[in-house]
Amino acid sequence: MTTKQNLLKNLGIVVLTTGLVACNGADERKAKYMEEGKQLYQAGDYEKAQLAFKNVLQIDPKDWESHFQMAEALSKQGKIENAFKEYSIVVAGSENHVMARVRVGQLLLLNRAVEDAEKMAGEALAKEPDNVEALVLFAGVQAAKNNSDGAIMTVERALKNNPDDVPATLMMASIQARLDKVDKAISLLKQAIEKKADNVALRSMLAGLYAKNNQIADAEAMLAEIVKLEPQQLQHYRTLALFQIGTNQVDKAESTLRNAVQALPDNDTAKTFLVDFLMEKRSPEVAVAELLPMIEQKPDAYELKFKLANIQLAKKELDKAEATLKEVVDQDKLGRNGIVARNKLAALYAMTKRGDEAKGLIKEVLDNNPRDAEALTMRGQFSLAENKIPEAIADFRSVLVDQPNNIGVLKMLAAAHLRNNEEELAKENMEKVVAAAPADETARLDLVGLSLKSGHQDQARQQIEALLKANPKSLKGLEAMFKLEIGQKHWDKAQEIAKQVQQLFDKDATGFYMSGLGYQAEGKLEASVEAFQKALARKPDAIEPLTEMVKSYLVLKQSDKAIGKLQQVVKQQPDHFIAYNLMGGAYLNDQKFSEAKTAYLKALDIKPEWYSPYRNLALIELAQKNKQGAIDIYKKGIDKSKGALELVDDLARLYHREGQHEQVLALYEESYKQHPDSVVAVNNLASYLSDFSSSPANLERAAKLAEPLLQTNNPNMMDTVGWIAYKQGGYDKAKEILLKVVERDPQSPISNYHLGMTYFKQNDPLKAREYLQKAVDKKVEFDGLNEAKDALSKL
């Protein structure tokens, strides 16, 4: 028994001591990696330092200091988003880590999240009230809140703790400059530089203040000194060159960039900066002449080859750009640059409508790396163009896994969801765009549109208010708010916005035009005319206020006033063809056909290729029962306007009413020849072929013509594809398409008729009756109405 007890006791000691040795070994390795990381960081090798800190975290994931050091290394590499995540991990895990809170606060302040930054500063100062960086952060928060006095007091406290602290000095100088005390800020920076002559940050701010104070020579001299202090830093040369360009010293700027190339002979980016300058300030030919010898000296300088390809693309030398990119592919195979070249080539092929070649390259890239963001994006774009919405959505989502704030892809994903009738998902993605890029006015206005479409007017208002808070002078934002108020019949508020635009843009016509539209919508037509007059006083050649003013006069039955105003306009602007066209409309409104005809012909004398007067002249002939005269005018207009689709449609309807189907087909055939890329021309021809020349061969041709119409998501055009499928006996396909059509446009009698007939052919009497009855109940004449009634009677 004793022997057994001793054995167990000894075994326990062995296990315990082994554990202690293991623990000590882990601690030693942690300490070793941490020290190694810090040394690498100090040496400026941030990537290797990051790997060393990562090794510490593999041993102990809760080593908060290592998370912090990892974040510092990431920050130095410019990987700010990843750094922010690491800093935030420390904040969440360690309540005592002051500097992590300072860093999170600094990044939040940079992104204008002032309240959150203030919270971080408060937490840091609660732990260390005299921490200089925390005090500087808090001063920044106070300055952002326009509390300049508080900010100065906070910075003075920081400088009391450390009189030579650079960030505190910079903050004080910044605050003084904001208070327009530029001389005081300059003096402060000069004193600091006397103590720290090699500090670049102090000199950079001083150069900026010299420039602000119009001390051009002093600013340039300071930037040149920075270059001398750190001659291996390319950015300093670039900053000096940009300053020289901005002060019209182009030759000096070129010299600066050439000095950079000479000082940094192995830095290809320095060469690209010089080439970019030559491209913009000299000529593309000079840039290429400089670039080609650089590439010859260093054939594996892929950055330079990509620059050459970009210039060739800018010059529209597509064959040369293709050759350059193919050379990179041949050289680097499936290396990083070879992949980049394939993506660029694919984009070039897509641009030149060589879709199959583009898709082949995209496949090569994704076979090598299934997560390549650029290739996934392009494949998604192809899927979107081909109406393969689920595939497009899947690719865009894959990109966003690695790049959650990719604005372009978020917008495309929103568009894909919208095409898929998933308006809420589209809205969610546009909300992400706005969150990532709050200054993107177009995105915010797109979100406003989606909110209104889904009936969320309050959310739309919030977005417009946010836009106007960030930029109170945003004309687009004010226009959006004006439309919202008009839509909600808040007439007084709409006029207030119009007046605001008048004050902000007092020499512009927009505010008065908006006011006129508001009065017009409210039914105050006399007031609308007055507002449109004021708009025209500011911009006499403006078309919109003139057009709307004439509309108001005509509703008021004051054609004489409309004509009088238009005569004034053409007297001052004899070539104002739109005014003559409006004048014709005013005469036509009073059935003064001769005067109207004279005005329309005058408009055509000035602009013979414009389709609108021809339409109106044809209407005059039709009103006078002169059908052949109308046809002749349409034919002449189609010839002069090079096949304006509006005139083609008008003439086709005229022929169709007379049962002249061959003439309609001939008209549509010619229109398609003139406009092969027009979905309207394609739809017209395919639809008419299937309805009025439906031989098997013609149906087959119509089906091929109409196939791209599915991509439009236009219910009328999709209906054409579905009806052709019906005519060919493809009832399942027809039903699938027509159900989507009726979902988009449930009131269309023709689409309900088409879907009802499809169910009729599929022997589904309940569904057939439902949709055929809807078509008939609309009490609208359409081709097929009698067939719909006949089918209903059989049911």
Explain what the structure shows.
The structure is a single chain. With 795 residues, this protein is mostly helical. The protein is 80% helix and 0% strand. It has 45 helices and no strands.
Explain briefly what this protein structure is.
This protein is mainly α and 795 residues long. 80% of the residues lie in helices and 0% in strands.
Keywords:
single chain; disordered N terminus; 795 residues; mainly alpha
Round the Cα radius of gyration to an integer and report it.
Answer: 36 Å
Supply the helix-strand structural class.
mainly alpha
Helical residue percent? Answer: over 70%
Given as residue ranges, the uncertain stretches (5+ residues, pLDDT < 50) are: 1-23
E-strand count? 0
Write the layout of secondary structure elements.
Elements: H1 2-42, H2 46-59, H3 64-76, H4 80-93, H5 98-110, H6 114-127, H7 132-144, H8 148-161, H9 166-178, H10 182-195, H11 200-212, H12 216-229, H13 234-246, H14 250-263, H15 268-282, H16 284-297, H17 302-314, H18 318-332, H19 336-351, H20 355-368, H21 373-385, H22 389-402, H23 407-419, H24 423-436, H25 441-453, H26 457-470, H27 475-487, H28 491-504, H29 510-522, H30 525-538, H31 543-555, H32 559-572, H33 577-589, H34 593-606, H35 611-623, H36 627-640, H37 645-657, H38 661-674, H39 679-692, H40 696-706, H41 715-727, H42 731-744, H43 749-761, H44 765-777, H45 785-794
